[in-house]
Amino acid sequence: MTIRLRAPRRLAAVATAGVLALGLAACGGTTKDSSSASGKGTSGGTASADPNAPLKKGLKLAFLPKQVNNPYETIVDDAGIAAAKEFGGEAKEVGPSDASASSQVSYINTLIQQRHDAILIAANDENAVCGPLKQARAKNIKIVAYDSDTNPQCRDLFINQASSEEIGRSEVKLLAERIGHEGEIAILSATANATNQNTWIKFMKDELAKPEYSKMKLVKVAYGDDDDQKSFQQTQGLLQAYPNLKGIISPTTVGIAAAARYISASKYKGKVVLTGLGTPDQMRKFVKDGTVEQFELWDPKNLGYLASYAAAALSSGQITGAQGERFKAGKLGERTIGANGEVILGPPTVFDAKNIDQYHF
Ligand code: RAM
Fold first, then answer.
1. Does pTM surpass 0.70?
2. Keywords in UniProt for this one (predicted)?
3. What is the pLDDT of residues 219-256, one digit of tens each?
């Protein structure tokens, strides 16, 4: 499947629901719930899939994002929490305030003690979370990675927002078209350990190795750690260190927004092309002021919604995570599990001045 730039696809709108902030969890993170109910989980899945098994009522799900103060992760998790209400479950979000490799470990341990039916995790590091996740699985807690995968040994499913290969290659194509396939380029990523960004960057490098990009040179991969200030400073650093830089790809919503803010008020506006993955709400002003022409994303609400239904299907014994199994994801329809326990949400949308006002997330 190829992503073409001419016909951006409109993704199905999913209603968001409000959530109640219930208080602060350990390590400076926050907790929010779709229900104030508490009590034991209903873990007890089956060894083989029963596609006709009804979704269990009262399932307890917990979303553990990369970090709670990232607007993107908030949209995803809020939609997942709202989805749980649809099938009579309860869901909450807990998580760290930084995206460092081990910042999620203590949260997993707490969620195990609380006997959740499923933990949904956007992993900050594919291996650092593995030990605790394996302990959770030993207690029949289902593990759904979403957004950023763990080592596949440590989860039941990975809900991927789009094909990783498509994301990586399309980012390079978007930039190449804007700079005439020529010049120095840089990547401003999230953390150095982030599984999703690293997978996309691998495909970007593979794409750049093709003959049509022989005049483009990747001079640096910088890391803003999904921290706004650090991403802003890294952008400034890149532009100063590489005066001939023609373009930057930032495959992180935090990074691209910070980079756009820096460029918009600098002498580089209109000279250096910035693209990547951003939310339309954060990027709108930078598209309107001409700092950014095009960027991509999927609908984060749909990602949270799909992950929630997948966790419920696992916890209800409808699926086990094996390739070829199918489950119903509410208004998103039936989904099939692919190789390596991966379920793909769908193709991303390219946003530009013409369509950005149709999107609100
Ligand atoms: C940031 C995070 C997230 C990623 C998006 C595109 O919000 O790094 O993991 O999927 O960007």
1. yes
2. Signal
3. 999 999 999 999 999 999 999 999 999 999 999 999 99
